[in-house]
Design goal:
Low-confidence stretches: none
Helix content: 55-70%
Number of helices: 16
Oligomer: single chain
Structural class: mainly alpha
Strand content: under 5%
Length: about 350
């Protein structure tokens, strides 16, 4: 065993609290902390959210010293409220990612079926996709996965696919599409022929500018850009759906350069949470987007009142928020109002 590392053995909830005290963590209410530790996994909570509150200058000098130490005047409650904030952000954003996902799936099914309107099984033919050499392996796998989804769902009594396979011996894409996960949908769009991608991109751009007249119609929004954005959104959807740490998540697989929302705000795409918030504007109505930003204002105001200002700024930085984030999201007044309410509670 490595004697320079703390031994990882079972600890009671009370022993977990004592161990945190050894690391200089303070407690405003130990009963509150005990109840939290009984309900929230220590690893998913403390280990996942402690980073912002640790003393980066601490170095252990003796083998029995803790491996890490918290900064002075950091409380258990500070870590918990960051965990709570992250949970609220996950729940809020997942709702609007679902809205974006439905928008994309609806248009993808519509324009694919419009092109192959005489063949309900067109998606089972690899030649109806962009079957170029670099996509062939992906398309082959995609079609196999679509067929597996149909086979699996057709055995579930009462399912839509069971109804269609039993009564019509075919499953139109508009019936299958809602059963696909967002990752499969992303690959379906990527592998679709260019004319289908272009129609969807143009339609989304038209709807977006119709909802947001301040945006310039000259911006180009291509099918390639939309494909990258779908994969970007899906990475955050997976984080949200699996209850993982969201606020500092980044997705950097794709090279997203020229996107209409970021062109408007003259921002670089940093692949962080703030980019996701702006991207969702493109897939939602003005009313839906205002509702999302109102929820964000409440969550951010709550966090700002429950952690030190320096920690709040670090968290904003990890979320890739620019300095004028309140102005861009148009929530400055609501944010300040909510801060006053939380301050007085």
């Amino acid at each position: 065993m490595n004697n320079n590392r703390e031994e990882k053995t079972f600890k009671t909830f009370e022993e977990q609290i004592e161990g945190l005290k050894r690391k200089n963590l303070k407690f405003k209410n130990e009963r509150f902390a005990l109840n939290i530790l009984k309900r929230v996994n220590y690893y998913s909570f403390i280990n996942a959210y402690k980073e912002n509150f640790l003393d980066s200058n601490y170095r252990k000098t003796n083998p029995n010293d803790p491996d890490e130490m918290y900064k002075d005047n950091v409380f258990f409650e500070n870590i918990f409220w960051l965990y709570y904030f992250n949970s609220e952000m996950r729940n809020n954003l997942l709702k609007y990612i679902f809205i974006a996902e439905s928008n994309i799936k609806t248009k993808l099914a519509y324009y694919f079926c419009e092109k192959y309107k005489t063949d309900n099984n067109a998606y089972q033919n690899v030649n109806n996709f962009n079957y170029i050499p670099e996509l062939r392996k992906t398309i082959n796998y995609l079609v196999q996965k679509l067929n597996r989804t149909i086979n699996r769902q057709s055995n579930i009594q009462g399912s839509r696919i069971n109804h269609y396979t039993t009564n019509y011996n075919t499953v139109p894409l508009w019936v299958l599409m809602p059963q696909l996960d967002f990752g499969t949908t992303a690959y379906f769009f990527k592998c679709s022929k260019k004319d289908i991608q272009s129609k969807i991109a143009k339609n989304m751009k038209f709807e977006f500018i119709e909802e947001n007249s301040e945006f310039n119609n000259e911006y180009i929004f291509t099918g390639e850009a939309l494909s990258d954005i779908i994969f970007f959104m899906n990475s955050f959807r997976n984080i949200c759906a699996h209850n993982e740490r969201l606020y500092d998540h980044r997705f950097i697989t794709n090279d997203i350069n020229n996107f209409i929302v970021h062109e408007h705000y003259r921002l670089n795409f940093n692949y962080g949470l703030f980019d996701l918030i702006l991207v969702l504007k493109f897939f939602t109505t003005s009313l839906e987007y205002r509702a999302l930003n109102s929820l964000l204002a409440h969550s951010l105001a709550f966090l700002s009142e429950n952690v030190d200002e320096s920690d709040f700024l670090k968290i904003l930085s990890k979320m890739k928020f620019p300095r004028n984030w309140k102005e861009i999201l148009e929530i400055e007044e609501e944010f300040q109002h909510m801060k006053e309410l939380y301050k007085n509670q």
